[in-house]
Amino acid sequence: MAVKTYTVTGMTCSHCVNSVTGEVGRIPGVTDVQVDLTSGAVTVTSDRPVDDTAVAAAVDEAGYELASQP
């Protein structure tokens, strides 16, 4: 199991959280996505290491920006 936390900017409401959770959750291998709206932290749990570029692309698809990567 792999766990990584990213920082996402631009999220302001529960709709934002749902969008990011949905897009990141579609990445193959991802088993859980937890989003902290206040801090912008997005914690991704997966059954194998996930490519950071795939997470960045999913966040971008949701309409937000990855501010930092682990």
Automatic annotation (TrEMBL):
* Entry-linked CDD domains: HMA
Record's Pfam families? HMA
InterPro entries xrefs: Cu-bd, Heavy-metal-associated_CS, HMA_Cu_ion-bd, HMA_dom, HMA_dom_sf
What sequence ranges are listed for the domain HMA?
2-67
Q: Which PROSITE patterns match?
A: HMA_1, HMA_2
- Record keywords: Lyase included? no
Q: Does the keyword Metal-binding apply?
A: yes
State the source organism's domain of life: Bacteria
Keyword annotations from UniProtKB, A to Z: Copper, Metal-binding
This one is known as: Heavy-metal-associated domain-containing protein
